[in-house]
Amino acid sequence: xxxxxxxxxxxxxxxxxxxxxxxxxxxxxxxxxxxxxxxxxxxxxxxxxxxxxxxxxxxxxxxxxxxxxxxxxxxxxxxxxxxxxxxxxxxxxxxxxxxxx
Length: 101
Description:
It comes from Paenibacillus cucumis. Strand 1 (42-47) and strand 2 form a beta hairpin.
């Protein structure tokens, strides 16, 4: 008598509805296009949780904005210790990207 391998049961605990999915994709695509136009520029970025960073946009790829962050007041220059600090930020979590002069 052969035993059949047991198959774990699966249960979906969350599934995005189509209008919400389309909205998130639209925001991601728009922010990707905007970020790519401003590569190399100094910006301030705020996410949906209220966190704020300053730095230079290095790249935007696959829904991620890569920001080379500016040292915070009271902290040493990051590259003096480890090289440039690149912060990956999820595009659809961003609220504001402000160009800094």
